[in-house]
């Protein structure tokens, strides 16, 4: 079964299709702005699904269903926190950030935006934020490469190192060729595939068990605590799980989608589409793990590999309940989730190296063609480093990713929020917020005080540092205030 030809054919067709989209995007890429942000011309549908797909990596189809399968419905608090956080990010940040980045000299990257927004002539903001992006995203990219390798290894019985390159090659290819447009267009296809898989699979599981009522009876009979939302959780644990939602305000690969929208007016429809997609996907992922409990309770002879690794529950259900051709399509959804996130992370790293180091410090007069090719070379560089980090199947990269989300959320989240909401914020406040937010996450993670997820204190202390150092470190210049007022007026002029 692991060497099923129909599934292999399905994977190959899917990968070739993604590369073909990359080639089409190559023809539409004329300058560095096109390569990094798609020329800021994404419509609401592509903006919505690209933001969703770039967010939901392999954990959506492997990690979350696996957690639910092992512990029950109490693990779904994280899905609730993510849904609330994503909605607030769309509601508060998306439209404003689109306008502010354009008003501030058409900033293409977050470090570029921070530097211009706060008139940081020392470039400390640009350097520090770019370094944060490179460190966390290189680790993130490595984890994506590992996840892709695990999928190919377990599905086709490949050697780990062969699977490593097989999983990464296609993503590197279309990101290298087509840049942001390729990523956004492929994200749209991948998001559609993910929602199809996450709606169809739990429905078929429920049917296989004998219906919804029978499934619930089997789960209750196996362990009634699987139905308890509060099983083994105190209020700190619940707050920590909900706190994952705070991370959205600072994720560069998601914020880049807002910056690339055709205008802030498309955000309204994009939010509706993206949130609908997200709710269905998260609910489907929870349902796969939850009703998977009933299926394998009724079929214990089939539960061997799932008992060893709960994260295989979606893979095993796909193989057991569908013919190989359909299973290939469903398993391609895992590859889609991995590829969509990995490609975004590669491009954000590339843009940081190209725009915020190469152009800012080495070649200020570089042509657009030169910048595009440097950007492509940076994609290869980051990809090679990520593959090297992922080459040891027993490495600790995946453990570090546990607080990469918190690191971005605490280092950038408060700065982004205050930068688009408070005209009195200063450069010193922004720098203090980044430093305190990032440092709090790193220190809190080491000591694990109160068992509280580190993003929560990081976000709180980072926000406090922004306010304090903005108030005691001088006032923003008249030009800063004028640009802020101009951006706010534009955002409010035709507000939804």
Automatic annotation (TrEMBL):
<dbReference type="InterPro" id="IPR050277">
    <property type="entry name" value="Sodium:Solute_Symporter"/>
</dbReference>
<feature type="transmembrane region" description="Helical">
    <location>
        <begin position="277"/>
        <end position="297"/>
    </location>
</feature>
<keyword id="KW-0813">Transport</keyword>
<dbReference type="InterPro" id="IPR018212">
    <property type="entry name" value="Na/solute_symporter_CS"/>
</dbReference>
<keyword id="KW-0406">Ion transport</keyword>
<comment type="function">
    <text>Catalyzes the sodium-dependent uptake of extracellular L-proline.</text>
</comment>
<dbReference type="GO" id="GO:0005298">
    <property type="term" value="F:proline:sodium symporter activity"/>
</dbReference>
<feature type="transmembrane region" description="Helical">
    <location>
        <begin position="429"/>
        <end position="449"/>
    </location>
</feature>
<keyword id="KW-0029">Amino-acid transport</keyword>
<dbReference type="GO" id="GO:0005886">
    <property type="term" value="C:plasma membrane"/>
</dbReference>
<feature type="transmembrane region" description="Helical">
    <location>
        <begin position="232"/>
        <end position="249"/>
    </location>
</feature>
<keyword id="KW-1003">Cell membrane</keyword>
<feature type="transmembrane region" description="Helical">
    <location>
        <begin position="402"/>
        <end position="422"/>
    </location>
</feature>
<dbReference type="InterPro" id="IPR038377">
    <property type="entry name" value="Na/Glc_symporter_sf"/>
</dbReference>
<keyword id="KW-1133">Transmembrane helix</keyword>
<dbReference type="GO" id="GO:0031402">
    <property type="term" value="F:sodium ion binding"/>
</dbReference>
<dbReference type="GO" id="GO:0015193">
    <property type="term" value="F:L-proline transmembrane transporter activity"/>
</dbReference>
<feature type="transmembrane region" description="Helical">
    <location>
        <begin position="371"/>
        <end position="390"/>
    </location>
</feature>
<feature type="transmembrane region" description="Helical">
    <location>
        <begin position="6"/>
        <end position="26"/>
    </location>
</feature>
<keyword id="KW-0812">Transmembrane</keyword>
<dbReference type="InterPro" id="IPR011851">
    <property type="entry name" value="Na/Pro_symporter"/>
</dbReference>
<keyword id="KW-0997">Cell inner membrane</keyword>
<keyword id="KW-0769">Symport</keyword>
<keyword id="KW-0915">Sodium</keyword>
<keyword id="KW-0472">Membrane</keyword>
<feature type="transmembrane region" description="Helical">
    <location>
        <begin position="127"/>
        <end position="152"/>
    </location>
</feature>
<dbReference type="InterPro" id="IPR001734">
    <property type="entry name" value="Na/solute_symporter"/>
</dbReference>
<dbReference type="GO" id="GO:0015824">
    <property type="term" value="P:proline transport"/>
</dbReference>
<feature type="transmembrane region" description="Helical">
    <location>
        <begin position="455"/>
        <end position="474"/>
    </location>
</feature>
<protein>
    <recommendedName>
        <fullName>Sodium/proline symporter</fullName>
    </recommendedName>
</protein>
<feature type="transmembrane region" description="Helical">
    <location>
        <begin position="68"/>
        <end position="88"/>
    </location>
</feature>
<feature type="transmembrane region" description="Helical">
    <location>
        <begin position="193"/>
        <end position="212"/>
    </location>
</feature>
<keyword id="KW-0739">Sodium transport</keyword>
<comment type="similarity">
    <text>Belongs to the sodium:solute symporter (SSF) (TC 2.A.21) family.</text>
</comment>
<dbReference type="Pfam" id="PF00474">
    <property type="entry name" value="SSF"/>
</dbReference>
<feature type="transmembrane region" description="Helical">
    <location>
        <begin position="164"/>
        <end position="186"/>
    </location>
</feature>
């Amino acid at each position: 079964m692991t060497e099923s030809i129909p599934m292999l054919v399905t994977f190959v067709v899917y990968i070739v299709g993604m590369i073909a989209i990359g080639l089409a995007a190559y023809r539409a890429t004329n300058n560095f702005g096109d390569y990094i942000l798609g020329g800021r011309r994404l419509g609401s549908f592509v903006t919505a699904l690209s933001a969703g797909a770039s967010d939901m990596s392999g954990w959506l189809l492997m990690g979350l269903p696996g957690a639910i399968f092992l512990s029950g419905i109490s693990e779904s608090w994280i899905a609730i926190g993510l849904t609330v956080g994503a909605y607030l990010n769309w509601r508060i940040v998306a439209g404003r950030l689109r306008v502010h980045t354009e008003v501030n000299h058409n900033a293409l990257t977050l470090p570029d935006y921070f530097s211009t927004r706060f008139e940081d002539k020392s470039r400390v903001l640009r350097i520090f934020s770019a370094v944060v992006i490179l460190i966390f995203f290189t680790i993130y990219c490595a984890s994506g490469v590992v996840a892709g390798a695990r999928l190919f290894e377990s599905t086709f019985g490949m050697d780990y190192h062969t699977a490593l390159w097989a999983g990464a090659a296609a993503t590197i290819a279309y990101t290298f060729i087509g840049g942001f447009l390729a990523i956004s267009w492929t994200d749209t296809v991948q998001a559609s595939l993910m929602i199809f898989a996450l709606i169809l699979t739990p429905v078929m599981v429920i049917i296989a068990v004998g219906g919804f009522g029978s499934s619930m009876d089997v789960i209750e009979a196996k362990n009634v605590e699987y139905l308890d939302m509060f099983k083994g959780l105190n209020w700190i644990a619940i707050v920590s799980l909900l706190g994952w939602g705070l991370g959205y305000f600072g994720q560069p690969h998601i914020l880049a989608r807002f910056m690339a929208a055709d205008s802030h007016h498309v955000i309204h429809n994009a939010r509706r589409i993206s949130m609908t997609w997200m709710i269905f996907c998260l609910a489907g992922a929870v349902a796969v793990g939850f009703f998977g409990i009933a299926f394998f309770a009724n079929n214990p002879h089939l539960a061997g590999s799932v008992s060893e690794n709960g994260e295989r529950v979606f893979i095993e259900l796909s193989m057991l309940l569908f013919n190989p051709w359909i299973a290939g399509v469903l398993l391609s959804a895992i590859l889609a989730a991995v590829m969509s996130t990995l490609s975004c992370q590669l491009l954000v790293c590339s843009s940081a190296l190209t725009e915020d180091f190469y152009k800012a410090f080495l070649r200020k007069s570089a042509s657009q063609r030169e910048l595009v090719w440097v950007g492509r070379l940076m994609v290869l560089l980051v990809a090679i480093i990520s593959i090297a980090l992922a080459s040891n199947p027993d490495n600790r990269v995946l453990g570090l990713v546990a607080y990469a989300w918190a690191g971005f959320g605490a280092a950038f989240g408060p700065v982004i929020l205050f930068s688009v909401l408070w005209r009195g914020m200063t450069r010193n406040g922004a720098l203090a917020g980044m430093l305190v937010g990032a440092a709090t996450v790193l220190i809190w993670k080491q000591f694990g005080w109160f068992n509280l997820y580190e993003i929560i204190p990081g976000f709180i202390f980072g926000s406090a540092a922004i306010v304090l150092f903005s108030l005691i470190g001088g006032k923003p210049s008249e030009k800063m205030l004028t640009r802020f007022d101009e951006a706010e007026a534009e955002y409010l002029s035709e507000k939804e």
